[in-house]
Design goal:
The complex is a heterotetramer, with 2 copies of chain A and 2 copies of chain B. Chain A contains 4 helices and 3 strands; from the N terminus they run H-E-E-E-H-H-H. By secondary structure, chain A is of the alpha+beta class. Chain A has one domain: Alpha-Beta Complex (Sufe protein. Chain: A). In chain A, strands 1-2-3 form a 3-stranded antiparallel beta sheet, covered by helices on one side. In chain A, helix 1 crosses helix 2, helix 2 runs parallel beside helix 4 and helix 3 runs antiparallel to helix 4. The longest helix of chain A is centred in the C-terminal third of the chain and has 20 residues. Chain A is globular, with a radius of gyration of 15 Å. In chain A, 41% of the residues are buried. By secondary structure, chain B is α/β, with parallel strands linked by helices. Chain B has 2 domains: 144 residues, Aspartate Aminotransferase, domain 1 (Alpha-Beta Complex); 255 residues, Aspartate Aminotransferase, domain 2. Chain B contains 13 helices and 17 strands. In chain B, strands 4-10-9-8-7-5-6 form a 7-stranded mixed beta sheet, with helices on both faces. In chain B, strands 13-14-17-16 form a 4-stranded antiparallel beta sheet, covered by helices on one side. In chain B, strand 5, helix 5 and strand 6 form a beta-alpha-beta unit. Chain B starts with 5 loop residues before the first helix and ends in an 8-residue tail after the last helix. The chains are: A alpha+beta, B alpha/beta. At the B-C interface, helix 2, helix 3, helix 4, helix 5 and strand 11 of B face helix 2, helix 3, helix 4, helix 5 and strand 11 of C. Bound molecules: pyridoxal-5'-phosphate (2 copies).
Chain lengths: 147, 417, 417, 147
């Protein structure tokens, strides 16, 4: 075939070879301070996020769920990036991810590996998959702030 | 696949000449909507450039011309489904509106507290939700016939549900997920024996199989132009002769009245009684061109072509590692909507990857969440074929699927470009 | 008439280049439906040749492209009427369906036995019959505000009708027969003071005057694309922010659901909750091109152009023997739909004769039988103007009317050709 | 103007100069055996037809009504053509007029002056105006046959 190499293969390969096959922090916490769920009714993706927040710090974090590779990898990356970080930092990362996925803002240095999600912004119809766990996190941060 | 001259047909579809993601477009999402031939696009242009006027009321030349062209399409629709009278053909927006029309204009008057409506688990949401809304309004009860593991309708389960309280049996003719063609004549006989009426959701059959509403024996038949080469925005409701006359109006407004007085109004003759306001004139007329196109090909030939390509698709898919097909394998009892799952790869991922190879398939619940639950899957992939699809399209699909499987299953991926 | 470059505009309308009955087409039936510019026709062709796919559910490139283009038009609609949120814009088939949607989805839940709905005698059937049907379903009562002899709405009579039992006041913004522009803001204040909601039938105002739904103060605003350069088959319902959320669904089916279970379903977010089934995708997108065209001209300029040609038409018609104009003469409070009677000549005869001179006007009751009775005429002639009509069109009309009058009034007719 | 002479002027002139200005048998009969009404709800044309039928013979006939020139002239012509004729002949003329207006069949000799209605067949939207009085007549013949 002389046609150009399909552009999304790489994106998938990068994501999948890593987080899809070896999800980080997959499971449930024994004593979470926050347990939150999110469903994307349109495509059926589901995420459950457990948080152990103490003194403004995310001491532990874990997720379970089912759905497409993008929703599951995004959740895995989320946990990896935020474990042990402060709630304030989580909020900053969250808004950086949103800006990258929704507005197409180039990822800042604080996103770290999350920048590999940037490719999803080119797939508008899949953005909601990538955002699912982040929206769940938002609920968690809100209720942590309220508590 | 010699039933149709596919190369010549492809030539009639301008969109097929374009590239998508740098690849030749392979359009296999025909159960969602089909592409339009030049003839249909030309009919639209022709209408707007030479005829456009509001119909039925006008005396001037353009209004008369537009009215004649619009009304002529009713006859073509009747011919397509083997109906005797074009006055039994109502134009709506889509299958969904056709079914809602029956639920309101027939259902509200004929379905009461404790009455039952029998559906099946393979129905499209458009043949479920209108009845749920009716049931809520009237205190009626919905019953769902089961689907067998092989993807066929469980007729025994249906028979057990149809009884004295049944007012309506509403079933899909051809499933948009499984491809299954249901034995509508048999179902209609069952229903009529209990005094129930029968609605057939023909959204997937009208485009793909020769039809004769008399043989089907149904009371209502609903379908959409956009799934059969026609423009978006046109649906059809056909009703058995005499039935529309007994029904209340659905939408009120211009065109559907005879005399309007402050305290109440009288209605126009059918079918106009059910076409309130300015109809989608241009698209109905262009739908006429789509029906001409299909008549010219011959629905028998369309069916044979699709049987051939569907059989080839089922065979090729079955040979791919980890692929499961949902629905019957025998193309004698099924159409060209082929749903499948790929082990370990979510349908949305499959769809995104094959799309990067120019292949358009659908992934999701296909507006059939009850069926997804019955199949035990969150979603499926679906490739659906039409008159312009050929072996080469199928091969491209299979090749793209191979790549998707490779990406997800081999660590040893090719290096990034 | 220097507000628009009419010669250039005419150039954009292919249909105007054609002859009718051997004469240049003079299209003066714009209140029924308008002609379409090249830009709109091209948008349709472009859509079907490069984009066509079903929306919202698909992951493949065409589906994403079609969804984006479709959704973008909501924003253009919102901008056209000064609405803040495009999520408050629902696409329907036409004004008629928009009003029926409110009558069912809002009316059935909010109007009960003995409740009152206030209309006026100048309403189009589409703003009468849906309320008659609702009144019949719910035991509600309709009240009609009177029309004054000068063709304006009798606000005193309206005020006297709006009271405690009033749930809704539904009035036309600009009459399709009289041209009258009603003081909607004042009416809305009256209604809101009594806790009633206000629906404005904007079928004739959306195409012709600058709009701002906030200033109008209404709760619902309904109009049709086909009367404003857009294709047939697209209507709009706008509702005040928050209102759609409180309403029951209208049609059930695909696209409008969130989760479907056998016993019942949950709904999608607004506006999708009100768009069941495959929408009229292509025509909505082409309507976007119509809105672009109008925005480019500027609605202020459109209004000024129509004021000028309407003033000239009223003056010229008044000078013809035996011609009576129905409706206000002051173009400050009226639009370009000009109804008139000719002594001793039935409107159908007038229409047939002027048609033979290439002039398309409308004759009949204009879907306003209550108003015809109020005016004491069986029917009227109506010439209605739009952006492509100029002085020459008006002169041709006047000349053709002169011939009609001559045929009917002079024994000494010219000898047959 | 160099454009061709509009074709319907002549049609109108022929009709109007005669029946529209001097309608025949306009009025009501003192003692009709049949009085029938027809309305065209779409355009509001109205016709009342009085018949005095004795021994299979239309001894007298009259009409009143309102509406466009085509409906009124057609009624006037109807009365002129059928006054004093047998019911059988009326039925024949009726089917001849229908054939001419609906199917465009050229008028036979038994239509006489009614052939001047032929032009209406070129105006399909006006055919129902021309047919109104004939449909009323049909009702009359039916009830005469039934009586
Ligand atoms: C004032 C008014 N309301 C409602 C309508 C109905 O519009 P539609 O036929 O597009 O539904 C019209 C046009 O016919 C109109 O002029
Ligand atoms: C079986 C079936 N029924 C109903 C529908 C609804 O059709 P539409 O969206 O045109 O109303 C579809 C298509 O989506 C279908 O496949």
């Amino acid at each position: 075939m002389t046609a150009p190499e399909p552009q999304f293969d790489d994106f998938y390969r990068e994501l999948i070879l890593d987080h899809f096959r070896r999800p980080r922090n997959r499971g449930e916490l024994a004593d979470p301070t926050h347990r939150l769920e999110g469903v994307n009714p349109v495509c059926g993706d589901e995420i459950q996020l457990d948080l152990l927040i103490k003194a403004g710090q995310i001491d532990d974090i874990a997720f379970t769920g089912s759905g497409c590779s993008i929703s599951q990898c995004s959740a895995s990356m989320l946990t990896e990036r935020l474990k042990g970080r402060s709630v304030a930092e989580a909020a900053k990362v969250l808004s950086g991810v949103r800006a990258m996925l929704i507005e197409g803002t180039p990822p800042g240095p604080d996103l770290g590996d999350l920048e590999s999600l940037e490719g999803v912004a080119r797939l508008p119809v899949r953005v909601k998959c990538a955002l699912l766990s982040w929206n769940v996190l938002q609920d968690g941060l809100n209720s942590a702030a309220g508590a | 696949m010699a039933h149709l001259d596919v190369a010549r047909i492809q030539h009639d579809f301008p969109i097929l000449k374009q590239e998508v993601n740098g690849r030749r477009l392979v359009y296999l999402d025909n159960a969602a909507t089909t592409q339009k031939p030049r003839q249909v696009i030309d009919a639209l242009v022709q209408y707007y450039e030479t005829t456009n006027a509001n119909i039925h009321r006008g005396i001037h030349t353009l209004a008369v011309r537009a009215t004649d062209q619009y009304e002529a399409v009713r006859g073509k629709v009747a011919a397509h489904i083997g109906a005797a009278n074009s006055a039994d053909v109502v134009f709506t927006r889509n299958t969904t509106e056709s079914i809602n029309l029956v639920a309101r204009a027939w259902g509200d008057a004929n379905v009461g507290e404790g009455d039952e409506i029998v559906l099946s688990l393979m129905e499209h949401h458009s043949n479920i939700v209108p009845w749920q809304l009716l049931a809520r309004r009237k205190g009626a009860v919905l019953r769902y016939a089961d689907v067998r593991d092989d993807g066929t309708l469980d007729l025994d389960s249906l028979r057990a549900l149809v009884g004295r309280r049944t007012r309506l049996v509403s079933v899909v003719h051809m499933s948009n997920v499984l491809g299954t063609i249901n034995p509508v004549a048999e179902i209609a006989a069952m229903a009529h024996a209990q005094g129930a009426l029968v609605l057939v959701d023909g959204a997937q059959s009208a485009p793909h199989v020769p039809l004769d509403v008399d043989t089907l024996g149904c009371d209502f038949f609903a379908f959409s132009a956009h799934k059969m080469l026609g423009p978006t925005g046109v649906g059809v409701l056909w009703a058995k002769p005499g039935l529309l006359e007994t029904m209340d109006p659905f939408l009120g407004g211009g065109e559907m009245i005879s005399v309007v007085k402050p305290e109440g109004s009288t209605w126009a003759q059918v079918p106009h009684k059910f076409e309130a306001g300015t109809p989608n004139i241009a698209d109905v007329i262009a739908f006429g061109a789509a029906l001409d196109y299909l008549r010219h090909l011959g629905m028998e030939a369309v069916r044979e072509h699709e049987k051939a390509i569907t059989a080839a698709a089922i065979e090729a898919l079955t040979r791919l590692p980890g692929v499961t097909i949902h629905g019957p394998r025998n193309v004698g009892i099924r159409g060209g909507a082929v749903s499948f799952s790929v082990d370990g790869i979510h349908p949305h991922d499959v769809s995104t990857i094959v799309d990067s190879y120019g292949v358009a398939i659908r992934a999701g619940h296909h507006c059939a969440q009850l069926l997804m639950r019955r199949l035990g899957v969150p979603a499926t992939n679906r490739a659906s074929f039409y008159i312009y699809n050929d072996e080469r399209d199928l091969q491209t699909l299979i090749e793209a699927l191979r790549q998707a499987i490779k990406v997800f299953t081999h660590d040893s991926a090719r290096t990034a470009v």
